Amino acid sequence: MTAKSLITIKGVKDGLVFLLDDQCEFIDLLRDLRDKLEHTPHFFNGPIVYVDVKLGARSITEEQKSEILDILKMKGNLLIRSLQSDDKVEKQPDYQVHTVTGIVRSGQVLRHQGNLLFLGDVNPGGMIICTGDIYVCGALRGTVHAGAEGDHNAIITASLFSPTQLRIADVISRPPDEWGVTQTQMEVAYVDNGQMQIDKITNLQRIRQDLKMFKGV
């Protein structure tokens, strides 16, 4: 007889809902969560997805909450929006993302205070300037500037990287003709030791951990 899954994933209009069993041992819950992420790749290797986690009647400690979040953040395209139990909903106030849909055409500049999820293309001659992170779910062929007020920990991701220029804080990307071949999945740009680097978005959690270590936070 097949064992009951401790994790149920449901698609909703604006993201995913993770329903976590509230009767099992916590260690078994974590193991099943890792297994679910590893064996359901079609959800977790694509564009940015908002996630709400529902704990049912389970009460968890801060340490247990961190363990759940750390596992989910291993998939770089998951943005955790809330942790919910039967008696409360715990928002994640430390990381808010504003969503904009459209096309940034040549000569247009889109400015935003905070983190931005842009659903659309940035055409050559178009520009996005943002004080936080920038997620482009579309083709990035123009210019984007993340961490515009000096945040070197900001990142830039895109479904297709073919930018005119990338900038994070005061660090400017390599010349456009040095960008690599077309990738098969989303990539992320970040600053490491004063240099712009590019990696797969699946490595985003490791990158963020390295940045925190470098910054001493």
Automatic annotation (TrEMBL):
Q: Which UniProt keywords apply?
A: Cell cycle, Cell division, Septation
Q: Which positions fall inside the Septum formation inhibitor MinC C-terminal domain?
A: 100-198
Q: Which Pfam families match?
A: MinC_C, MinC_N_1
Question: Septum site-determining protein MinC N-terminal domain spans which residues?
Answer: 7-82
Record-level GO BP terms? cell morphogenesis; division septum assembly; regulation of cell septum assembly
Give a short account of what the protein does: Cell division inhibitor that blocks the formation of polar Z ring septums. Rapidly oscillates between the poles of the cell to destabilize FtsZ filaments that have formed before they mature into polar Z rings. Prevents FtsZ polymerization.
By sequence similarity, the record places it as follows: Belongs to the MinC family.
PANTHER family noted in UniProt: SEPTUM SITE-DETERMINING PROTEIN MINC (PTHR34108)
Q: How does this chain assemble?
A: Interacts with MinD and FtsZ.
Name by which UniProt lists this protein: Probable septum site-determining protein MinC
Organism listed in the record: Paenibacillus agilis
Gene encoding this polypeptide?
A: minC
